[in-house]
Amino acid sequence: MRKIPRLTNMSAIRRYFISGLLVWLPIWITILAIKFLVDILNSTLTLLPVRYQPDALFNMHIPYIGVFITLIVILLTGVLVTNFVGHRLVLIGDAFIAKIPLVRTIYRGVKQVLETLFKPGGQSFRKVFLVEYPRKGMWSIAFQTGDGTPEVEQLVDGKPMLSIFIPTTPNPTSGFLMLIPREDAIELKMPVEQALKFVISLGVIQPVAKTT
């Protein structure tokens, strides 16, 4: 039977602590993230008047019924807006919101970002590039967010341009938006998920390039 090494010094204690932390911390963060999403979905029913909430209608508390109802509503909404009638209703709603100052600015901005990110066939965050930043000879991971606008391309001798996002590490939700000539960006074969892991882990988790 293998003996457990004795804790003879602080370095051994530190090694054991880090080993245990690497086991429990990802589990804890995953649980917190799932709980956060579940709580958001479950709390959507609080937007209803009290007398129409499930607890009042059924005269009893049903755990997480808000999650189930919210997911069903989202699914049915998707079914509705994909047909002609539903699409027309969305256009009417968009036109109404477009008449409300301030609200229309926030709504349009959020909707454009989400449509860009989730639109099938879109290029946003579908490709990983290597670019020289912050100076020549130093390279950074970047994600394509779109193509350059005609106005910008005209101002740079008609060169095809890319709009890219260079994330910070270990927090990839912040970063820098840049426009660069396409010829100055090197497209990588690594998947976006692998590139994000590389950024978040401070380069510790090495990405595996696509073979096809």
What is the 3D form?
flat
Class inferred from helices and paired strands: alpha+beta
Query: What strand line-up does the widest sheet have?
Result: 4-3-2-1-5
Total of helices: 7
* Oligomer category: single chain
Radius of gyration: 24 Å
Task: State the major sheet.
Answer: 5 strands, antiparallel
Number of strands: 5
Mean pLDDT: 81
Report, as a whole number of angstroms, the end-to-end distance: 46 Å
Order of helices and strands: HHHHHEEHEEEH
Helicity level, as a percent range?
A: 40-55%
As residue ranges, the low-confidence spans are none
| Beta-strand proportion | 5-15%
3D architecture notes:
By secondary structure, the protein is an alpha+beta fold. 48% of the residues lie in helices and 15% in strands. The protein has seven helices and five strands. It has a five-stranded antiparallel β-sheet, covered by helices on one side. Helix 1 (10-43) packs across helix 3 (65-81). The two termini are 46 Å apart. The mean pLDDT is 81.
Summarize this entry quickly.
This protein is 48% helix and 15% strand.
Secondary-structure map:
Layout: H1 10-43, H2 54-58, H3 65-81, H4 84-97, H5 103-118, E1 128-132, E2 139-147, H6 150-155, E3 161-167, E4 175-181, E5 186-188, H7 192-200
Antiparallel strand pairs: 1-2, 1-5, 2-3, 3-4
Helix pairs in contact: 1-3
